[in-house]
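The instructor's notes for this session suggest beginning with a concrete chain rather than abstract definitions. Hand out the sequence below and ask the class to guess, before any prediction is shown, which regions might be ordered.
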Amino acid sequence: MATADLTAARLREIFDYDPDTGIMTSKRRAGRPVGTQTRQGYLRVLVGKDAHMVHRLAWLWVHGHHPSNTIDHINGIRDDNRIANLRDVHPTVNTQNQTRAQRTNALGVLGVNQLNRKFRAGIRVNGKRIHLGMFHTPEAAHAAYVEAKRIHHEGCTL
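After discussion, reveal the predicted structure:
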């Protein structure tokens, strides 16, 4: 059963979902929580032969329709599937809700890179990189980044 073929009615026959805890359970296996964690930290479950992301199923279960865009975990915790933590947003907004640096970031500080002995803060807005300044500490550079992020990124939850 492909994702688009799975209806809210059929989903509710197979699973129960608690919107307050975000836990989806199997009706066949006496309330046992479902989902296997992916490498990225999301929960995935098989329905028939098809894999489904639990956060997308939670949306379908509560709202009765498939999400039209990307489901964003507002708090950045990928297995926190409480309905209050999920929002159906454009992929750009989802990307703007990034709360920690990429693994490839040498400093491990979002929006900051080191240039010689100073720290440069920068942000992308509408595909263009904006230089926010050079700072003496990574913390000061990150603070400038967060301030700009709150202004320019509608998806920001920092």
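Then share the key points. The mean pLDDT is 91. The longest helix spans residues 138-152.
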